[in-house]
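Quick one: structure tokens for this chain, please?
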Amino acid sequence: MKITSLILLLPALLFFLLFTGWPIFEVVRMSLYKTNFIASTFVGLDNYKALFSNEMFLQSMKNSIFYVILLTFGHLFMSVTVALAVFKLNKRWQDITRILVYIPVLAAGIIIAQVWRWIFSANGVANWLLSLVGIDKVNWFGQSATAIPVVVFVVVVSSFGTFVIIILANLLSIDKSIIEAAMIDGASERQIKWKILLPMIFPTLSLVALLAMINALQIFETIYALVPQQYAYTPTFCIYTMGFKLSQWGMASAESVLLLCVVVVLSLLKRKVEHEV
């Protein structure tokens, strides 16, 4: 029986080793070398040391803090608001809402980003709306103070549908008798939401927050399409720039290893939270 199980697992194991295990091993190995793929020199941990004096890397780390905070808050706010709004509707409207909010998730991020690029352009819809209230045009992608919030806004609007489905499913699994008992005791709708529903789905909200944090560190196509500038880089885009534009493959690999460690830690936390949901 055990031999049969191993044979059945072998294709999946080989697939994992070939497309996950071996690339990870190569990235770790390359992080110890200074290489252009023609000539390689072993430098040990020098690439890791150099990262912490590299302006681009430090900027991406600073930006990642803002991305994590804004994206996590944005996803939680949007998904919880929509889920609570449709929670008491009938099943037909709940299904329609699920479909509508999930459609942007299915669309290619680079295509959605192009639409938002037009909206936030110099003569786009965003600046036209500001002109109606007497505010001058804003160069949305010209500085980090506006570029990062815009990128986060685009990512949240494009992907919060997944979290709406998760949270709504959790809300619908709550025993209706608990809500009915609270209503009989005179609890208002606001009290039911804040003191009963949200505390009961707190593990799911924690899971959503962890997923949002992981996503925040890996934003790529939205930055590539909207604002491929250093003041808006994420760690993922920094890796792309170092490796494919500057050919600093060793440093790019070292940053990949560091990012992998952070994502693994967050993934382990996510796994722990999932067992509590």
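The domain at 55-274 is CATH 1.10.3720.10 (MetI-like fold).
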